[in-house]
Amino acid sequence: MMHGMWHRRQQEKPSRVTRALVFRAASYLIPYWRPGLIVLVTVIAMAFLALTPALLIRTVIDVAIPDKRLLLLLLLALGMIAAPGIAGIVSVIQTRFSAYIAQSIVFDLRTSMFSHLQTLSLRFFTQAKTGEVMSRLSNDVSNINRVVTDTITQSVMQVFVLISTISVILLMEWRLALVALAVLPFAVGSARRVGRRRYKLQKESQTKLADLNAIMQETLNVAGFLLMKAFVKETYERIRFGNKAAEVMDVQIRTNMLGRWFRMILQVLEAIGPALVYLYGGYLVMQGEMSLGTLVAFATLLVRLYQPMSQLANVHVEIMGSLALFERIFEYLDVESDVVESQNAIPLAIPAKGRIGFYDVGFQYIPDRWALHGVSFTAEPGQLVALVGPTGAGKTTATYLIPRLYDITEGSITVDDVDVREIKIHSLRDQMGIVTQETYLFNASVRDNLLYADEKASDQQILDACRVARFDDVVNRMPNALDTIVGERGYRLSGGEKQRLAIARVLLKNPRILVLDEATSSLDSQTELQIQEAMQPLMRGRTTVAIAHRLSTVLAADKIIVLDEGKLIEAGTHSELISKNGLYSTLYEIQFKPQLSGALHTSI
């Protein structure tokens, strides 16, 4: 699936509740049927306990008081106190298990969504907004908690309250019960119309909140903040944020107003019902066809009738809004990765030899537009292969294809003569070390950043890796040595220090294949030379593919691959390519040779 097309389709997709969506959302409750059964039992118990006071009141008025039975009156009064107390204890139990179910479902959704996102290719994350991904993973999933604890539990409870109350009032006086129930169809009809509108507004609200989060994510991280300051775009960003926040405010006002009109309709219906009951019930009492106690008990039970009716109507509205949350979560869970592990995939041998082969490799980021086309070369164990070429030649793309961050469009790439698509992805990447063009560091200590490569590494192993990467002198100057916090994305370090830390991290992993994407581009010539000399023992017997922008890299390379516009133009050693007077010779004169004179000038 092309993820850019997927994002456009989701924006254009009409909001519609389907039976499949309802069943899929409900399926997350199935693993928790045992605590759900406990919740159901407590809900039924609470529904019937709530009927007790009205029935006791009827006995007080019709029996205890007229017959002057003081003991019965005392017992009935104690019953009125005991019933709510027992119901309260049952309610605590119900709340405990409801919370457990809700948080378990939130946990399941969040972890499955996070795990699924980890399986997607780099293509998805280059096209998705980080703020939107965070919004769905955090806000949307968190709101599911309210759905389970409040919406579902309350709906089940109110169903039993309604059923039990209708049963009792029908037994009390069926004529009066029919009058009381006459307003129910109007409430149900209103709830269905409002629910459909609430579903659309809920989805619109979450989408606009995701857009707002995306703006915050882009402008309030270190890189975005520096860019905003450098181009003096504070006013522009403030207006952009304000406009989007205004859109969020507008849709939330519409949502609140929708609920307010609906509640007003329910309040009117709740007033009409009791009025009719008192009118007709009073008439029956006057005619001697019904006792006063029955009328009082019936009036008391009206609260038990109309309150559940009102809440169930609201529940329908809430469920429709909640399904919009589930739909947004399922949209991400249904994204298919374009990098899929073969069912018959085999693990790479440990240790791998590290022989890499490109055979007529073609790759497209966008259909009908080749980023690489017809590229063939091999890299033997122990060789340093340098990729050179002008900007946009496809050098970085070639390095992304080896660990299957993307899958090739045509041809094949092999490691140890096995197609990478037939190797277990974890096994393949586990024996590769990658230093990317943009060094990423966590806002944590130097030690934590290095332990990301090997959690079991000792301090001595960490210090050895730092020494090889010429980062040990930086550690020694730090206030807390290895425990020094490097800051957001490592902004407390210079560009060269960040790259040396990244190289130390890869060295600690001790991979069989090294991929260095301009790994020393931020280092001065002397430090770069020291690192390359120190890395020679590590490279021995291992395959190293390096994107080269430095003269020292191309001179040290066993093989140089020259790319231009996605095609392999030349391949060979430095001396072989210079003698051909081709593209490499031109690049050498423009890009590499000036570095030689600059280095000589520096040494003088």
Main sheet attributes: strand count, strand direction, barrel closure = 6 strands, mixed
Please state the structural category. alpha/beta
> How many strands?
10
How many helices does DSSP assign?
22
Helix content: 55-70%
Cα gyration radius (Å): 35 Å
Label the overall shape.
elongated
- Spatial ordering of strands, largest sheet: 6-7-8-3-9-10
- Measured by DSSP, the beta-strand proportion falls in 5-15%
Distance between the termini: 57 Å
Regions with pLDDT < 50 over 5+ consecutive residues? 1-6, 599-604
What is the average of the pLDDT values? 77
Structure description:
The chain has 604 residues and is α/β, with parallel strands linked by helices. Helix content is 65%, strand content 10%. It has 22 helices and ten strands. The strands form two sheets. A six-stranded mixed sheet has the order 6-7-8-3-9-10, with helices on both faces. Strand 4 and strand 5 form a beta hairpin. Helix 3 runs antiparallel to helix 5, helix 7 packs antiparallel against helix 12 and helix 9 packs antiparallel against helix 11. The longest helix has 53 residues. The N terminus and C terminus are likely disordered.
Quick description:
With 604 residues, the chain is an alpha/beta fold.
List keywords for this structure.
six-stranded mixed β-sheet, four-stranded antiparallel β-sheet, single chain, 10% strand, disordered C terminus, disordered N terminus, elongated, alpha/beta, 604 residues
